[in-house]
């Protein structure tokens, strides 16, 4: 593994200059900073600033890096992680990337340097550029004082076959949702508000949506797939725009519940009856699904179990102390939770209300 001398040699600067860049000193010129940061990236260098000189590499600290703590989805995930961590006397440190791959790369590098035993990661690394590919490749090679730092990803497996993951089958879940809207609710013109198109989870859910349409003899058209951004406001504005344009639809399947809540608000303001005129279905089954009016039918994702499974597996990897021979992907089951947004008069399910 590269050390600070290698970085200095690669960048053509002194070791002290590299150190100042790592510590974000203002005394380094922009041009030198660029040279050093490029060398760090090229060499996949990870500093070891806190534990330098310590005899043991065990810290009982786990880094948890999420896309955004404002995503309600992650509250249950964190609860599961915390429960398992507390039982084993581990501490967790939470950071968020705001879906920025640049920030994610810096956070992973920083966490590895700040002496953690492992990293649980909800990654935004779905690009195919050289820098992203090199970063993904590096995730299975993180080290501290010669000891391997395991990484476990959440929600979907990254493209590095050396990184384990705890996931759900996004394609299968989307297929189940759309098939339900067609067979059980009798809808034919179903709009899908997706996650960002470039995201693996977004692509998988679109694939499931399309497969369900085609298996039921319905035509897939790109006009019925709208790119969302996770937020309720996005669901709200996209729905109002659909109605304004006169686009025909009798159901909306949203890739998360937050966007579905926005859809319900827009339909209410436009005096469109749910579910008689338009049925609405979400994904994740966050607590809001049980309390909005009408209550929201959703695909339940076991968030607590995802967090707990990720932490349990992380502890197993730490105890083993070396990369496993074969990658492990833990896939959790999902299920449909029916509520009033798809069937009038159905009893509101509080089965998974977790607050």
UniProtKB/TrEMBL annotation:
The name this protein goes by in its record: LacI family transcriptional regulator
Domain HTH lacI-type: from-to ranges: 2-56
Superkingdom of source: Bacteria
SUPFAM superfamilies, A to Z: lambda repressor-like DNA-binding domains, Periplasmic binding protein-like I
Keywords, comma-separated and alphabetical: DNA-binding, Transcription, Transcription regulation
């Amino acid at each position: 593994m590269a050390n600070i001398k290698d970085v200095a040699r690669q960048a053509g600067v002194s070791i002290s200059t590299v150190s100042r860049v790592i510590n974000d000193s203002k005394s380094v010129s922009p041009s030198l900073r660029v040279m050093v940061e490029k060398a760090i990236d090229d060499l996949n260098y990870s500093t070891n600033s806190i534990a330098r000189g310590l005899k043991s590499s065990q810290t009982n600290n786990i880094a948890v890096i999420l896309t955004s703590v404002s995503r309600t989805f992650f509250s249950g995930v964190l609860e599961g992680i915390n429960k398992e961590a507390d039982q084993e006397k581990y501490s967790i440190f939470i950071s968020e990337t705001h879906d920025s791959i640049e920030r994610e790369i810096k956070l992973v590098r920083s966490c590895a340097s700040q002496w953690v035993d492992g990293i649980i990661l909800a990654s935004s690394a779905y690009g195919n550029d050289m820098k992203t590919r090199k970063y993904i490749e590096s995730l299975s090679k993180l080290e501290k004082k010669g000891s391997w730092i395991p990484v476990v990803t959440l929600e979907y497996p990254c493209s590095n076959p050396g990184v384990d993951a705890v996931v759900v089958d996004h394609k299968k879940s989307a297929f189940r949702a759309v098939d339900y809207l067609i067979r059980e609710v009798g809808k034919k013109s179903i709009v899908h508000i997706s996650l960002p198109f470039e995201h693996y989870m977004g692509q998988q859910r679109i694939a499931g949506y399309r497969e369900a349409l085609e298996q039921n003899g319905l035509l897939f058209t790109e006009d019925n797939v709208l790119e969302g951004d996770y937020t309720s406001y996005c669901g709200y504005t996209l729905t109002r725009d659909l109605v304004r344009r006169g686009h025909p639809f009798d159901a909306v399947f949203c890739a998360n519940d937050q966007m579905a809540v926005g859809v319900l608000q827009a339909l209410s303001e436009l005096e469109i009856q749910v579910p008689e005129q338009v049925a609405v279905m979400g994904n994740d089954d966050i607590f809001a699904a049980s309390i909005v009016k009408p209550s929201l039918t959703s695909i339940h994702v076991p968030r607590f179990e995802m967090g707990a499974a990720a932490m349990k597996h992380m502890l197993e990897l730490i105890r083993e102390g070396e990369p496993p021979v074969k990658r492990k992907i833990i896939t959790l089951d999902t299920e449909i939770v029916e509520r009033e947004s798809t069937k009038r008069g159905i009893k509101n399910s509080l089965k998974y209300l977790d607050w």
